[in-house]
Amino acid sequence: MSQKRAGEFALIDLFLSQFPRARVPVGPGDDCAVLAPSRGAQCITTDAVVEDVHFKRAWFSPEDIGHKALAVNLSDLAAMGALPRWFVCALALPRDFPRRALLGLARGMSALAREHGIALVGGNFSSARELSVTLTAAGELPPGSPPLTRAGGRPGDVLYVSGTLGDARLGLAQLQAGRRRSPAILRQKRPVPRIALGRLASRFASAALDLSDGLAQDLGHLCRASGTGAELDVERLPVSRAVRASLGLEGALAGGEDYELLLAVPPGRTSAFERACLRAEESITRIGRLTPGPAGHMRVTGGRALRLPAGFDHFQQDGGAD
Amino acid sequence: MSQKRAGEFALIDLFLSQFPRARVPVGPGDDCAVLAPSRGAQCITTDAVVEDVHFKRAWFSPEDIGHKALAVNLSDLAAMGALPRWFVCALALPRDFPRRALLGLARGMSALAREHGIALVGGNFSSARELSVTLTAAGELPPGSPPLTRAGGRPGDVLYVSGTLGDARLGLAQLQAGRRRSPAILRQKRPVPRIALGRLASRFASAALDLSDGLAQDLGHLCRASGTGAELDVERLPVSRAVRASLGLEGALAGGEDYELLLAVPPGRTSAFERACLRAEESITRIGRLTPGPAGHMRVTGGRALRLPAGFDHFQQDGGAD
């Protein structure tokens, strides 16, 4: 039903002007981008950020939105152990979306793209009532290197998470309460994709995923895909004092949008993995282990009684000690 | 800000159930799909259909929406001469979107995917106020075969279009006027991507694109990319009697969403191209030729005075004969 207007092409040019020219046989502007054959296997993900679902324009600057749209896709590449290669960007823009905001969005996205060496090779603009940014990103695995899936975990594998948990959720609570700046708000707006850790982990780990829906739910995904249970030592969870005070451990477990990596490492490889992380200055914490199951059955250790997040039917508390 | 709920996973399963399992190392369900390295170069496109911009739910069945979302992406692959390989699907769904409608959308998409042998390898669901479907599709070129870009045209090359022009625009006008069924409405709702013609044309043509914004505007794109002008014989345009009567030739030229191919073929190859099209039962029409320029300067021949579409500043009428 729609037709492109001269104004739309001007917007596309404005957006593209913020990105370096992609070194590919055919870049943006033709019917398709054309890419040389990849040497290794390709990892493909698609993820969208939608106004009033993933961000509010009152809280997020255009740069934040551009950053976050790319970061959530890069985080998926990180979880596979892939090296970022290219992405395409589909923008749905309200008719009143300011040129300056579009420029900001492009800048936020471009800065993160540059940092991870990923090239924008194409895109699409359409109008819409609400702003949304839908990206498809591709990474490459070194030739012969297997991907890090959710399904490779085995009973006995040690569980690690990167960084800290619950901050992004605390940041959201603070935004809702009227605050505009804090370290937690920065985590909500500017997630850091763990690309380098994912590459490193691919040499050691049996399974991985990135935490987008909260550790409780995402650990369930890993367990069910791997056909294992899990045992979680809640005392070990890397949760800041601020998060603990505001959300409790329960809130940190349920908190979405951490974009940290959850990794399972076979017991014989944990020492080497921990040493490699230390050398690479990657922050990881051992939080438990995979168990024989039943698949998806998770048990909490750590002593204290804990009200576990409601709605996660695959998360059952068996009480304290074992 | 959002978190996935059990209901969302059920919707994803429902959607995926309508597609055959993709034969790839890792399909939908992990953080990324994993694809074996491609043998030839890859062509990548991303295109969205948005409620009330590209379709109205009152006029389009869910099957129509699913079909159209994939068709507009396949049409881009056709224009490069690529063979469809895989796609990912990002759905933004209103909260009240019925399960049955989601199933219909998946069925419409799946039927077209099957027809062209393209595999759904991943996707994403988010909620939104309006329905939108954003696809990224990839095709492959036979190893060593160059892509069919917009930029390869040379002065003297003969211009062809496939099928007929203006029907989808007439279909839209009929929908707006309250009609619900007609051949033109079918063209608006169910565009046919010209994949086989694109593959065939890649052996003969110097340049190509798919007509999404109307011949007048899209020929301008090809001319500017190729650095040529063009001469169009409007008497030859393949425009049905119904379109001619309702929209005039002007309307057919300006009519978007034809999703036919515009092809430039060097003069020495036209006979062989036309014979190959005849054998393959591909309908094409010779409509003019590329000229030395200036780049983007288009001239109309054909005798009759024609009011050319407004707003296409690159389209100038020099009058009749030459």
UniProtKB/TrEMBL annotation, chains A, B:
Instruction: Look up keyword RNA-binding and say if it applies.
Output: no
| Residues bound to ATP | G123, N124, R150, S212
Domain PurM-like C-terminal, by residue range, is 154-298
Looking at the record, the residues that make up the PurM-like N-terminal domain are: 29-140
Reactions performed catalytically: thiamine phosphate + ATP = thiamine diphosphate + ADP
Where, in this chain's numbering, is Mg(2+) 2 bound? D47, D76
Q: Where are the transmembrane segments?
A: none
Does Kinase count among this protein's keywords? yes
Provide the residue positions that the database annotates as binding substrate: H54, E257, F312
**Entry EC number(s):** 2.7.4.16
**Metabolic or biological pathway:** Cofactor biosynthesis; thiamine diphosphate biosynthesis; thiamine diphosphate from thiamine phosphate: step 1/1
Q: Which domain of life is it from?
A: Bacteria
Q: Which GO terms describe its molecular function?
A: ATP binding; magnesium ion binding; thiamine-phosphate kinase activity
Which residues are recorded as binding Mg(2+) 5? D213
- Give the residues the record marks as binding Mg(2+) 4: D31, T45, D76
HAMAP family per the record? TMP_kinase (MF_02128)
NCBIfam families assigned? thiL
Job of this protein: Catalyzes the ATP-dependent phosphorylation of thiamine-monophosphate (TMP) to form thiamine-pyrophosphate (TPP), the active form of vitamin B1.
Family indicated by similarity: Belongs to the thiamine-monophosphate kinase family.
Q: What is this protein called?
A: Thiamine-monophosphate kinase
Q: What species is given as this protein's source? A: Cystobacter fuscus (strain ATCC 25194 / DSM 2262 / NBRC 100088 / M29)
